[in-house]
Input
Amino acid sequence: MPSQPDTIYAAFIEAVSQYAGRPFLRAPASATGGYSVGAIEYSYGSALQAVAELRLLYQNLGLGPGDRVALAFDSRLDVYLHLLALNAEGASIVPLNMAGSDAELLHIIRHSEARLMSGTGAHMSRLQLLAQEAGQVALFSVAGQGHGHSSAESDRGDTEVIAPKISPLRSSVPRISSKSIGSDSAAEAALLYTSGTTGTPKGCILSNDYFLTMGLEYTRLGGLCAIHAGDRLLTPLPPNHMNALSTSFMAMLLCGGCVIQLDRFHPASWWQTVRDEAATIIHYLGVMPAMLLQLPFDPTENFAGQVRFGFGAGSDPRHQEVFERRFGFPLVEAWAMTETGGAGMIVAHIEPRHLGQRCIGRPIDHVEVRLVDEHDGDVAPEQDGELLVRRRGDDPRKGFFSGYFRDEEATREGWRGGWWHTGDVVRQGADGSLFFVDRRKNVIRRSGENIAAVEVEAALLQLDAVGACAVTAVPDEIRGDEVFAFVVPAGKVADPAQLAQDLFAACMDRLTYFKVPGYIALVDTIPVTASQKISRAEVKKSALQWLASGRATDLRQFKKRVRS
Output
């Protein structure tokens, strides 16, 4: 039998040999307005040509095994092409989220020890300043390389590279150990930084095996998530996150499918794009399903027979059944994190999916799970506990991330006892299904009672007057923590104080009294991350500011045990 590919590039070469003429990477015209006229599309064959040109460019710069390149291409297809080119050279990529602050980007550039920064001309001025501040890279412009292939006439010559002045690349920046980057399955392919919503981002070392495992496990799922050769996967999620970079990209590469990459989520034109691009799979996160349900009804919006499934996480449980009936395909909820990849994936791809109950499914065949208390002791059946995961067999870490770069202590702590500690609290039902409760760090401890922020949010979201919400802990001199809720009203508010009291009273009917918000603040928006998850760090910071200024409605005096 032929050997399995052991790098991303080797898997790509195998795909080219089978699917050279098929579409591989596509950006619709709606996603390229700022830099191209019309859509951009690469077949497997034309992508190989583009990758070969990029390889030559990087070779001429002296790049090779042991180097990292920071990429600033936003959600352009360039990210995938540069990944393939650098992987072929044994080098690693560090995707940058240019929506981040200068301080966040500077931390990543310095911490990752990147030797080059490659990006679009639109980011060049900012990258120049960051390069000067970082002190490890200088400028080397190669604008106008023109290595793009589009389905319409366009100017793609706006790619530039920031690199040390010394050529070949041998500046004072130390090379990464050859043991961590090379041309085998254990070699590093990407250094992906966590979102940093709860602190300084950590660099997750992702190997070739990580990427290949993610693609293989996704394509092997079956059930509602059966992947077909030639599928067309539409994603609005950015390639600086593992969902697009490893999940979408690798699954399509391995099945001869096409990644249709959007610049971002456009609710108003979403279904037209789904129709025009003949998408068979869509990826979603966060509030996307809720926003789509708010659109005016369109008699052509049912996509049964075209879209087989949506794949994502964090959809509002209240909306799942309504969404599926209206739009004609299932929303398959899944759980994973950058650290676990496909090796620790949990997916609700088979029935029963327990719609409306925050079900994330059951562990796939090779995944073992435990639910533990704060002392790593197993919890009783159907009780909440922190989710621990590992791979079955002799190598419990196979397919997981290789560790946090320059933070061995955090890696050891995460893997204590031979299990990866996810920090997520879940509950396991009688049929083995897992139900998400909350992040352990989002558990509010009030007077000795643990309160899951997401449970309070779920109660608020049941109320017609609530459009969106976020719950966090604020300090309380007597009880330790108190429950603080930000609420975006669903409509106009005549009397904010009265609305806050009405919401409080409604929560008292739905929750144990100590879980009800002691403070409620009405706001216009809830801060979210680039992947549309609630930015817990920003929510916490804002809550402390509202508390200090006395702007929130204080309802603590009404939080009393109901006597029978």
